[in-house]
């Protein structure tokens, strides 16, 4: 593993454990067993590291949301499970989204582009499910509302758990997936 990968892995670990506000680039360098100078060779500052981690997360999303040509409910469930696994692996981002975006206009712009593309992708997914006979036909504005509901559940699930005195774990991940199915199920044909 190269230094850049070690830096990102160390940053993600520390951010998940302690939050981004409590972690400095020196902490990251120490955790990655490299010098601060070596870290700065790869990343200008902590914000650049956070942006790179978001880019990594986006790459995972792109892979996760690629469904087979003939999707089944099992494929959709696998997609949801993998999405929630990413939620766990990058939980610092979900916990701190608003704060991170307020502090970094470049990250905010990229995030908003990803969200807009996510809306388009959700519409395309629903259109495909309707075409394959797995989902009832819905007008575009209803699909947009359904996308918003699903996105809100995913984005705010970790925060909701922490505010409720619970933590993100395999059990609570499965509960989050269950909530997603509750929102989707009335619009599906057959049982997931």
How is this fold's topology laid out?
Layout: H1 3-18, H2 25-32, H3 36-42, H4 46-64, H5 73-89, H6 91-103, H7 105-131, H8 140-163, H9 170-184
Pfam family, one: TetR_N
Keywords: DNA-binding
GO molecular function: DNA-binding transcription factor activity; transcription cis-regulatory region binding
Describe the structure.
- The chain folds into two domains: 1-43, Homeodomain-like (Arc Repressor Mutant, subunit A); 46-187, Tetracycline Repressor, domain 2 (Orthogonal Bundle).
- The protein has helices at 3-18, 25-32, 36-42, 46-64, 73-89, 91-103, 105-131, 140-163, 170-184.
- It is mostly helical.
- 76% of the residues lie in helices and 0% in strands.
- The protein is elongated and about 55 Å long.
Task: Output the keywords.
192 residues, mainly alpha, Arc Repressor Mutant, subunit A, Tetracycline Repressor, domain 2, 2 domains, 9 helices, 0% strand
Question: What is this entry, summarized?
Answer:
The chain has nine helices and no strands. It is an all-alpha fold.
């Amino acid at each position: 593993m190269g230094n850049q990968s070690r830096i990102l892995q160390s940053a993600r670990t520390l951010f998940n454990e302690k939050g981004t506000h409590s972690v400095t680039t020196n902490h990251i360098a120490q955790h990655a067993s490299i010098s601060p100078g070596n870290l700065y060779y790869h990343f200008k500052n902590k914000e650049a590291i956070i942006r790179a981690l978001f880019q990594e997360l986006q790459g995972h999303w792109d892979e996760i949301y690629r469904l087979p040509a003939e999707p089944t409910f099992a494929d959709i469930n696998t997609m949801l499970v993998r999405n929630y696994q990413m939620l766990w692996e990058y939980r610092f981002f979900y916990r701190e989204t608003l704060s991170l975006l307020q502090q970094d206009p470049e990250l905010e712009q990229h995030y908003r582009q990803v969200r807009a593309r996510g809306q388009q992708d959700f519409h395309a997914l629903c259109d495909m499910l309707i075409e394959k006979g797995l989902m009832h036909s819905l007008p575009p504005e209803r699909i947009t509302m359904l996308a918003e509901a699903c996105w809100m559940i995913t984005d705010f699930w970790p925060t909701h758990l922490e505010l409720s005195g619970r933590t993100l774990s395999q059990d609570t991940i499965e509960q989050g997936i269950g909530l997603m199915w509750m929102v989707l199920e009335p619009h599906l044909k057959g049982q997931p």
